[in-house]
Amino acid sequence: MNRINKVLETKKNILSIYFTAGYPNLDDTEKIINELSKSDVDMIEIGLPFSDPLADGPTIQKSSTIALKNGMNTENLFVQLKNIRNKTNIPLIIMGYFNPILQFGVEKFCKSCNDVGIDGMIIPDLPVDIYEKKYKPLFDKHGLLNMFLITPQTSDKRIKFIDKVSNGFIYMVSSFSITGAVNSFGFEQKNYFKRINKMNLKSKLLIGFGISNSSTFKDAIENSNGAIIGSAFINFLKENKIEDIGKFVQLIRG
Amino acid sequence: MNRINKVLETKKNILSIYFTAGYPNLDDTEKIINELSKSDVDMIEIGLPFSDPLADGPTIQKSSTIALKNGMNTENLFVQLKNIRNKTNIPLIIMGYFNPILQFGVEKFCKSCNDVGIDGMIIPDLPVDIYEKKYKPLFDKHGLLNMFLITPQTSDKRIKFIDKVSNGFIYMVSSFSITGAVNSFGFEQKNYFKRINKMNLKSKLLIGFGISNSSTFKDAIENSNGAIIGSAFINFLKENKIEDIGKFVQLIRG
Amino acid sequence: MKISFNVNKMGYYGDFGGAYIPEMMYSNIEELRSKYLDICSEKKFQSEFNELLKQYVGRPTPLYFAERLSKKYNTKIYLKREDLCHTGAHKINNTIGQILLAKRLGKSRIIAETGAGQHGVATATVCALMGIKCIVYMGEVDISRQAPNVARMKMLGAEVKPAISGSKTLKDATNEAIRDWINNPVDTHYIIGSVVGPHPYPDMVARFQSVIGDEVKKQLKELEGTKKPSYVIACVGGGSNAAGLFYPYLDDEKVKIICVEAAGKGIDTGMSAATSILGKEGIIHGAKTLLMQSTDGQITEPYSISAGLDYPGVGPMHANLFRTKRGEFISITDKEAMEWGLSLSRLEGIIPAIETSHAFAVLDKKKFKKDDILVFNCSGRGDKDLDTYIDYFKL
Amino acid sequence: MKISFNVNKMGYYGDFGGAYIPEMMYSNIEELRSKYLDICSEKKFQSEFNELLKQYVGRPTPLYFAERLSKKYNTKIYLKREDLCHTGAHKINNTIGQILLAKRLGKSRIIAETGAGQHGVATATVCALMGIKCIVYMGEVDISRQAPNVARMKMLGAEVKPAISGSKTLKDATNEAIRDWINNPVDTHYIIGSVVGPHPYPDMVARFQSVIGDEVKKQLKELEGTKKPSYVIACVGGGSNAAGLFYPYLDDEKVKIICVEAAGKGIDTGMSAATSILGKEGIIHGAKTLLMQSTDGQITEPYSISAGLDYPGVGPMHANLFRTKRGEFISITDKEAMEWGLSLSRLEGIIPAIETSHAFAVLDKKKFKKDDILVFNCSGRGDKDLDTYIDYFKL
Ligand SMILES: Cc1ncc(COP(=O)(O)O)c(C=O)c1O
Ligand SMILES: Cc1ncc(COP(=O)(O)O)c(C=O)c1O
After folding, report:
1. Yes or no: is domain B3-253 CATH 3.20.20.70?
2. ipTM of the predicted structure?
3. Side-chain half-sphere exposure of B161, counting CA atoms within 13 A
4. What is the enclosing helix (H) or strand (E) of B236?
5. Closest approach of chain D CAs to the CA of A38, in angstroms?
6. pLDDT tens digit string along D212-246?
7. In angstroms, what separates the C-alpha of A129 from chain D's closest C-alpha?
8. What pTM, to 2 d.p., does this model score?
9. Smallest Cβ distance to D22: which of A68, A99, A125?
């Protein structure tokens, strides 16, 4: 069973942490993964940096620019991840835009993921429809889950379709906002969480975007199976040592 | 007999000098006229300064601007000229643009001229046609001659008309140029002088524009009854004392 | 017989007009006067003129119903879109006509004066089109406040010569152009940019601009079922855009005429260009007309924030419209005009030239009826004035 | 069956197109996709659209026979005068269409990206016209090199937000606009300015621009007795002016298509925007197309002296024209384009936008026959580029 599915089935209050590969320094990838694995984190999303991350807020944009300047690229990431499965069994997801994957070759990319022990993908600009028609067999062949996003605008019909195609979790975008970390969720967002929960989807739900502290994390896990933290963690890395990651996670867990 | 006609009939190689009233200083008018009268000059043109002297070159433009700044105006000029006929019998011509005369009142202007002993007018922007139809009786009534210009472009027919209307001299514009003093006349200009001379006009001819030194003066009087000097005299006044006017005139006479 | 508000055979509009010119200009003016009507009525001339207006200038310009503006003022407001002409103002209608005329007169060198630079650009443009040398005189003050148009003239290959006398604006540029013509009477044609100067210029320019009013007649017929608006309204610098719009309506007193002049900082401040109200009869640039002058007959240095209205005289046609009361004259301050520039931009998405903005300010000065049809001449676009607008509003 | 070079039902031109978008944009794009064809074919929509194009934009724009240019190159050269459109470029054809669509979709807030500022001005203009809030994203570099257009947007009441990431030009402004849309998916419509972005944008924008080609067909029939030119030629940034001109000729291979791209300092210098030659298949701003990118799939920062061509991608229609060889692609350096800007100004009295100048440079790259009929899209006027021209030529 895929590591992601195992976590989804066995754990509650899942915490998934995103970081940008190659940030703050080119060779931090392994260190960050190790430190996260040691802490109370359930999944890790490794961001493959892209020059034009149009679904990301300024924090992740900036980390991507720095990572690319540091020399990060697809080839390099797989080299860095080569021995990662000797060190940790935590579910690893690559989150990246579609163009670098396309240039690398989708099949070759899937195979490389499988080789180093990646469990799944989040590709924000590869819509579920195109994935389903064109790329699903490749992902399946290499044992990769593909996670899709839903937003407050996603229709019930489409959510059901996404649920059907999904074999991992559904990434529930907390709100309209990609502007990064917020301090608490509002009335509308909570209503949206409730609405989705009532749908009785087969897929587990993780909430992402805007989770930045124990209070928003608490809000999120009250309404879902867990939460994903990105910008807040990047901001943490900017100002703190990698060794202190455990403390960040403790703060979130509250 | 009008003083202008007397000079035209009795003299050859006539030298007429133009100056701008109120330049260099507001009260120089009388002094300049007196000094010119004492020298070997046959006629004087008193420029009534105008804000927009569009038929004049930069030298006379500038002197007009300064004269106006000094406070010169039509009223004032007649005050300055009030007793001029106690001092000199030289022909005096007022050269001015039509608008200030129109505002003063053409009849009142003619009368004032007559009162102070002015002999004639040169009004560059009052064409002979309009003069003839509308203003001639007034000029005649006050014993004022009106002098008209001709240029190399003026047709023979029109020259004959101007000759007919004229009762003083015809002001023969030397060339196309109103840019001020030049050093010598060219082939075309001399041809033009010859052409006009062959027409056997009843009016005497004085050449103006571009006469600046003894050589151009000589050229001019070879082809006409005399010459008019403007810009060169204004330039002289800018740099020299009024008492030295006699020397300027000697230089021109050669 | 009914009096006409158009020019008579002698070149006068009532008491105004004529040709008060130095002899040095006589041959040129006489050549024009004796030939312009014949040339302009030649079939070939007509078809070349109309063809260029259509294919090159982009005529007919729309008669645009300004819905939001009309709603706001509870009346029917149409804009004649001269701002859409090639080069951005009505001025090119005239320069197209005059360049064709100049070619027929065998001229190989063109001079022009310009205030806002629109006429300079329009002249430089037709000279480029015909491959004829072009010199444009422009007041030094205007050169600095209308920089984009100076740049355009240079791109088009024209030489821009600064006029440095007097107020260093339009009147002085005109003086310089006239001096140039006096110095170059044989090969040169002087393309005057408005309905000013000696006869036949006011009439000639008005005729070339009359395409504006002629189009309005046709377009209004289509849009409103009548050829006659209640009002025709235009700003007046020299008066050419106004003359062009009014032309077919001059003698039809059912159509009311409103001329809008620049009050500058206010007509009592000594910083103004409201010629008809502040002016007296006199002679400027060869025409008898109304002009701002001292009691002594010296021409006053005018002032307006708008370079194209910064002229102490007005065309003789307009002087006559004023004296006979055929036209109503309204003066608009810098402030009112600037605010209308912003209003029109925000209400209709049209950034007008500051000259043009003056015309619209009439809407705040006068009450119109719900059924009135107002035709404003939207004489030019505001691209040349962006710096002035931005500075003024600190945008 | 004959292949078509137009879009298919799935939103593809051959291999190119589609909608590679984040889920956060899905509802908006899907709403558009499912409604745009119906809305655009409504009678009422059609008549409002055509009415505004006529009365407000000033269409039809002339198809102008450039006599001096034709003589010089010994072929027949026509200019489709989009420079005469209100606001000075073809861009407004599209913004008029999209604002009418946005109103029908009940949107109350408009966002746009802009490079040269022409699309920003065109968007700000239609928003002012309709009284709708407008935010325009513009690269910081472009803000400083296209200052007049920034001023115009402000006059029109739009908010101009600088894009400060990446190359700070068009691509980055587009990223920012997309982010805004993701953050404001309910009340906001995103008016994309070219035939780029996810389906249905390329097709929708091409349809709105196709008025250009449709007019050419009619006008050429009148002028030359044939609807078909030998060549249709246009500069390609995203490709909208080109798409508009080519539209009715896409599947008629007797009419040859030439696309002109910006070579910047030269295609081998690393300072270029010649997408089709330097690009590879990939995904940019939601479409599969040709784009300039590293082997690693990072999008290259493009370079051109012309802000409107400074884009690393090209519309999917054009990617397909390139791949299928239906279109000939020629790239033109900054220097060649700038010199053509001056040439056209001096030969025809038309100062073109620098984008537009690129197209004309084809005349020095390719020999045409005496009887060939060339139709150039004169996509915009050069007023926005005066500073660049003046600096470059030290005028
Ligand atoms: C746009 C515009 N409107 C009006 C004018 C004023 O001139 P006229 O009164 O001759 O139309 C100018 C002069 O430059 C102008 O550029
Ligand atoms: C005048 C002009 N032409 C061409 C372009 C390029 O855009 P497109 O390729 O979409 O026509 C622009 C873009 O701003 C423009 O302003």
Report:
1. yes
2. 0.95
3. 14
4. helix B231-239
5. 32
6. 999 999 999 999 999 999 999 999 999 999 999 99
7. 10
8. 0.96
9. A125
